[in-house]
Amino acid sequence: MTQHIPVLAAEVIHGLDLAPGKIIIDGTLGLGGHAALMLDQLGPSGQLIGIDRDARNLELAKTALAKYGDRVRYVHSSFSAMDTLGVQADGILLDLGFSSVHVDAPERGFSFQNDGPLDMRYDTEGELTAEAIVNGWSKDELAELLRRLGEESQARRIANAIFDARRAKRITTTLQLADIVSAVVPRRGKTHPATKTFQALRLAVNDELGEVQKGLEAAVATLKPGGILAVITFHSLEDRLVKHWLKNSTEFEPMTKKPIVPGRPEILSNPRSRSAKLRLARRR
Question: pTM score, two decimals?
Fold first, then answer.
């Protein structure tokens, strides 16, 4: 398994203005990389609530953060429901990237690097899968999905190819889908032709943009006045949503006019960080 490296770690620690005794919510706990760094700053009197939709991630994080004992509270849920936890927090971190665990586990179906079932669910108890979308949605629905959530210029051509392929045989695996896309979209540069298709399916299966919208609204009720919200995005759809929401919010004062991005040394040591953008805002 690829080592998980928390993105923009120093910038997150500085931006959240961490200090001993504060209460922080990590709304996307993942493997606990950011959480461990934050707990070190929070000291023995501080507390961290770690939320994740993926039960497997929570179990891995519990092992990684075991030394912090009862200073960590683990919640199997979505960050969009954090306002139901009865907590008033000093800071909230939302790292919206999907974890290396998802990329590196073929059985989860998030990546075409290895063959696996077309799943893509963060919460494996969820009903909607990528396979259900690919095989069940109409040609027009598929094209609209790829256009809207994948920002795919070849959306119609790919939708047609998927539709034709599934008439002959049900599409059930990641490599099967990747091959269908590659057959109709030429490769340009290093980016695989199916990248945007997989992004669109992942966003749809997990309602990621809807979750972000609800999560931002939940942060209003969860943060103390003066508390800080830190959001890391990895693609333009999420970043635009966060940017416009914060700009139009009467409850938050943006602390960053432009997003904070990784420097060249971080990108070289962790290529997955290259598209990360961090925005900070303070609760009024």
Answer: 0.92
